[in-house]
Amino acid sequence: MKLILPKNDLPDQLRSWRKEFTVYLPQKLERFSHFMPLDDANARILEQPHNTRIPPKALFLPMTEALVKFTRFGTYEDANMEISPRIVFGMRPCDAQAVQLLDTVFEQEQYTDPFWVKRQEKTIKIGLGCHVPCANGFCTTVGYGPFNKDGLDVLLTDLGDSFLVEVLSESGKTLFENLHEASEELLNQAKEIQNKAHDAMPIAFETENLKEKIDQNFKSDYWDEVSRSCLGCGVCTFLCPTCFCFDIVDEVQRQERVRNWDTCMFRIYSLEASGHNPRPSRVERTRQRLSHKYAYWLDQIGLIGCTGCGRCVSYCPVGLDIRAMLRQAQSLPFEVSHAE
Amino acid sequence: MPNNNRSPYTPMPMRVLRAYYESTDRSLKTLELSFENFEDRKAFFAKFNPGQFCLLSVAGKGESALGVASAAWEGDFVRFTAQKMGTVTKALHELKSGDPIGMRGPLGNGFPLDDWKGKNLVIIGGGCAFSTLYALTKHVHHPDNREDYGKITLVYGTRTSGLCMYKHDIASWHEREDMEIHQAIDVPEENWLHHVGYVPDVVKEVAPSPENAVAVVCGPPIMTKFTLPALLELGFLPETIFTSLEKRMKCGLGKCGRCNLGHKYICKDGPVFSLAELNTLPPDL
């Protein structure tokens, strides 16, 4: 189902959803945009090519969240998590893809994360394709794209005065009821915009055999070279839409056990009680970060665990660029495995 | 529904049945926990297998991953031995009989006992990592299980005789005819009748036969590092050598990320791996 939503009608549309949903959309907060709930005053869409600083994974895996409550009797209860139905509006395809990748972590059969599942079930995701290529993104390089539909209920394409509304799921369908079907002409226009956006994204590095090269060069000096200027601040993982590591800590005053985002770029992340640390320096930690995204994810589900949003490139304080690191990795020696 | 309708992060209520020091220097304490709910007990023993671990929880302090040191047939309790190391294990050491405690588990894969049926077992342990091997040995000792396995050869080394765990029970194993037991300490002590030396050297000396046998190695990394090549030299194949790994853990469910070894998570896919499997994974330990 492909519909047309005039931009002038969007504020009313957003307001009408607020009767039943909490509507999250990117809003400007100081210098950056953030996903925040829509309030009465503001229904302005940020017309900007760049993405929010903090990825919308935070709406599914909050930075901090209570998991367990302690009782007076020395026992434990599930933390309360009440969540009303939500619409996330203006999610970029790279971030929607990332949330879908994270489903494979939190919704695996053996142990399902009830907090993640509940948030997913209550959320309708309206994506906004990127008709203007962003500065540091490389979505097409890793096999996705600026109009990728995975993980979305609706995909919008900006046609100038209106949006093309591509409904991708049943729940998405219920949101847009009184809209006209898109004309052939507008569909063609949208197709053209989408193709143009796709072609405008440069190929940042080759992914062929990248996994083998990373796997086979575990002990290479390459890791030392690429991690040399790293400060270990962890911002690349903190703002990464596919990073999901968390720490679990007890908050005594609140009598709760809480999970907080964590990062493999910190020393204490893997530090053991004995004092032994399998990843004692930034060399091993950088190796872990890159290998996880470009090798281990492939072993696990056959997909690269990076959606090419470019945040780690944009926000690294020393300008470390994962694209350059991976270009350099392409020159590592490797052997083709004949296992199959 | 797993975890009896609780979220997988919420511990089940347990109570300390017995708590006693295991080593003479009081660095090791054993806790035997009983279940508060019948349903939890049922669910636990339906899933339990020696080699698995649990996360013990002290409210306000945190959780700690500990291997189960008891076999199911021993009774309706679960045994753990904790070395006093950090915040949580210090709190565990302060617990007395009757105190409430939380537990999540059993977690992990445990030893592949079905695959080992009909084989001789070579069990090699060092220090407090012997706890899950104790559970394994106890499991195999039960008359219902004993016939499923061949000869048992046990090598257990500790730094001193005082650090040897489950002393009285292990002392009685020397009398058993169905197993061969070699205890070792690192440095000589008066009245010590067994081996003196490091575990890898004792293994070489004892030289268990690899024929129709599997070897299980649990110990500190340095011991494991030197024992694995010793076993290979004796003719054990990587597929018949097993070890139980440890890394820092938080969730125990393969979600929090930190215990990965390549694409495997030690908590979810392990902690027991064969050497053949480990050879395919990066040495990120």
Features:
heterodimer; A: 340 residues; alpha+beta; eight-stranded mixed β-sheet; four-stranded antiparallel β-sheet; 11 helices; 19% strand; B: 285 residues; 9 helices
Written overview of the protein:
The complex is a heterodimer of chains A (340) and B (285). Chain A is α+β, with helices and mostly antiparallel strands and 340 residues long. Helices cover 30% and strands 19% of the residues of chain A. Chain A has helices at residues 10-17, 93-106, 114-121, 170-173, 184-200, 210-216, 222-227, 235-238, 282-301, 311-315, 322-329, and strands at 2-6, 22-29, 32-37, 64-70, 76-78, 86-91, 123-128, 154-158, 162-167, 180-181, 246-251, 256-261. In chain A, the strands form two sheets. An eight-stranded mixed β-sheet of chain A has the order 3-2-6-7-8-9-1-10. In chain A, strand 11 and strand 12 form a beta hairpin. The two termini of chain A are 42 Å apart. Chain B has 285 residues and is α/β, with parallel strands linked by helices. Helix content of chain B is 25%, strand content 30%. Chain B is built from nine helices and 15 strands. Chain B has a seven-stranded mixed β-sheet, with helices on both faces. In chain B, helix 6 (199-206) packs parallel to helix 7. The radius of gyration of chain B is 18 Å and the shape is globular. The two termini of chain B are 34 Å apart. The mean pLDDT of chain B is 93.
Helix content of chain B: 10-25%
The percentage of residues in β strands of chain A lies in 15-25%
**Beta strand count of chain B:** 15
What is the succession of H and E elements of chain B? EEHEEEHEEHHEHEEHEHEEEHEH
Shape field of chain A: globular
Q: Count of helical segments of chain B?
A: 9
Beta fraction of chain B: 25-35%
Uncertain segments of chain B of ≥5 residues (pLDDT<50)?
none
Question: Sheet with the most strands of chain B?
Answer: 7 strands, mixed
